[in-house]
Amino acid sequence: MTIKNSDPKPEPPLHFRVATPADAGLIQPLVQSAYRGDESRQGWTTEADLLKGNRINIAGILAKITNPDSAVLLAFTGSSPAATKNNSDANTNNGNDNNNNNNNNNPDGLALVGCCEVARLPGESSAYFGMFAVSPRLQGGGIGRRLLAHAEAYCRAAWGPGTVHKLEMTVIWTRAELIAWYERRGYRRTGETRPFPLAEVDGAALRDDLYFVVLEKDLSIYGTAPI
After folding, report:
1. C-alpha 131: how far from its chain's center?
2. Is 156 exposed, middle or buried (0-12, 13-18, 19+ CB in 10 A)?
3. Which residue among 17, 140, 168, 185 is buried most deeply as judged by most CB within 10 Å?
4. Domain limits for position 157
């Protein structure tokens, strides 16, 4: 599938914050819609031809949110006086949560459009990037690029530029277009592959040759993804 990038449209302002347990019920359907089922086919990140069923459940999301070595980052669009004042896309405060005065899981006037997870890897100067999802109807409009840049900045700010040097991720090997998208943002294949947990998806895989390729980016060399 080709990413549609015809007439460029103005990018909407994004408002970022760190997820709390109250957000789990919003995050799960967003992730599901980006990867599985017919709705995911509206975007280009769909895995509907590879896997069926839930990509992650509420318990899995809560585990990520409550892990002290990780953060689930949320991106909202819309306009809200509190969010506009405290959390603008133009100033991400070097990746820190700029909306910590807003405790509502879906503030009035804002819509959740993207999420991701960053997690420090034990004993390493690296972090893992995952659970990356953008609403399928909004994909191709720059939200994912800006959310990735925010996640990179968050790692450097929250854990220190001298602590986390690299950000790594795993991508199913068949996702050539998605891998190329990451490569354009400074990520490189390490040459490592990891097995796909076929037993854990309980028959949800639609093919039996799936595995992951590992990508990483040296944040100390490349800095953050271009916004």
Report:
1. 5
2. buried
3. 17
4. 15-162
Q: What would the pLDDT profile of 20-66 be if each residue is shown by its tens digit?
A: 999 999 999 999 888 765 555 565 566 656 666 677 889 999 999 99
Q: Going by DSSP bridges, is the β-strand pair 166-172/211-218 parallel, antiparallel, or unpaired?
A: antiparallel
Strand order in the sheet with 166-172: 15-18, 70-78, 110-120, 126-134, 166-172, 211-218, 188-195
Check residue 177 and give left, alpha or beta (phi > 0: left; psi -120 to 50: alpha): alpha
Query: What global pTM score does this model have?
Result: 0.79
Residue 116 neighbours by CB distance under 10 Å: 24
136: domain CATH number is: 3.40.630
| Total domains present in the chain | 1
**95 alpha carbon, distance to own chain's centre:** 14
**Among the listed residues 17, 25, 129, the one whose alpha carbon sits nearest the alpha carbon of residue 74:** 17
pLDDT tens across 118-157, in order? 999 988 789 999 999 999 888 888 999 999 999 999 998 8
Give the C-alpha distances (Å, rounded to integers) separating 225 from 108, 119, 145, 190: 30, 18, 7, 18
Tokens at 14, concatenated:
């994004």
